[in-house]
From TrEMBL:
Lineage: Bacteria, Bacillati, Bacillota, Bacilli, Bacillales
Family, similarity comment: Belongs to the UPF0719 family.
InterPro entries: DUF350
Transmembrane region(s): 13-34, 46-69, 75-96, 117-136
One family name in Pfam for this protein: DUF350
Protein name, per record: DUF350 domain-containing protein
Gene Ontology annotations for the cellular component aspect, listed alphabetically: plasma membrane
Keyword line: Cell membrane, Membrane, Transmembrane, Transmembrane helix
Topology relative to the membrane: Multi-pass membrane protein
Localisation: Cell membrane
């Protein structure tokens, strides 16, 4: 084991980690902006449906970020791929949530605590994240 290699690359690890965490926070904040209700307030009151939906969105973003990290050739490449993937993740989330479920007001269902709908939307976010993550490659 060559410990000097790890010490020499520790700075790059920390930079990638901080950038990935910042991108995660940005993506989560954007999702918060497009959500018509206060997730924090509903989670605090015990709404499991909102919790499942938010966790799914966050997990979908993490899957996308880990793929961008794995496939990037440098820090700028990571940031570009991450932003592209996050935008696609958000657009696909909106299409699925509002386009494919027109006959059901899924936003109201989740806000009212419908756990099945929250789990479905959270799960779809993870699945979409897996698909988007798989497309990031060279």
């Amino acid at each position: 084991m060559n410990i000097s290699y790890y010490l020499d690359t520790l700075d790059r690890f920390l930079i990638y980690l901080l950038v990935a965490l910042a991108l995660f926070a940005i993506a989560t904040y954007i999702f918060k902006l497009i959500t018509p209700y206060s997730e924090r307030k509903l989670i605090k009151s015990g709404n499991i449906a909102v919790t499942l939906k938010l966790l799914g969105k966050m997990a979908g973003v993490v899957v996308v970020l880990q793929s961008a990290i794995r496939h990037s050739i440098n820090l700028l490449d990571l940031i570009i791929w991450a932003f592209i993937a996050i935008v696609i993740q958000i657009v696909l989330h909106l299409v699925i949530e509002y386009g494919l479920t027109r006959k059901t007001n899924v936003t109201k269902e989740v806000e009212n605590g419908n756990t099945a709908v929250g789990l479905l939307l959270g799960g779809v976010s993870v699945l979409v994240g897996l698909i988007v993550a798989a497309t990031i490659s060279y």
